[in-house]
Write a structure and sequence with these properties.
The protein is α+β, with helices and mostly antiparallel strands and 120 residues long. 20% of the residues lie in helices and 28% in strands. It has a three-stranded antiparallel sheet. A three-stranded antiparallel sheet has the order 4-5-6. A hairpin with a 3-residue loop joins strand 1 and strand 2 (40-45). The N and C termini lie far apart (50 Å). Mean pLDDT is 80; it is low at 1-27.
Length: 120
Amino acid sequence: RWACRMVRQPALAARYATVQDTMPPRGSSLPSLSFDPTVGVQLRDGDRVGVISGKQLRCACQCAVCVDEISRAPLLDPNTIPDSIGVVDSRPQGNYAVQVTWTDKHSSIYPFRRLWEIVE
């Protein structure tokens, strides 16, 4: 029989947020995300509102297509993203993130806390 064992690697663990780190505080509602081509992407959580351009948010994607998984070096050239990029769809991913589908057919997942870091 093979047994699985988790090996702790502090250097790697420090680089990645855990689901617990990205979840909203217990008892709070999930933030909402909306897109208006004239305003940009709006993030709303109660009275707290943040706005960012679609291009800025798309360029902040941290997926393996946009950022090297090992070195974390950017792979996405911001000049290839049009200023007019928009959101086709957005939907929650559990209680910790939102998945955004872009007009360039790319899909990004942003933990809510990461979204607020980008917006603020």
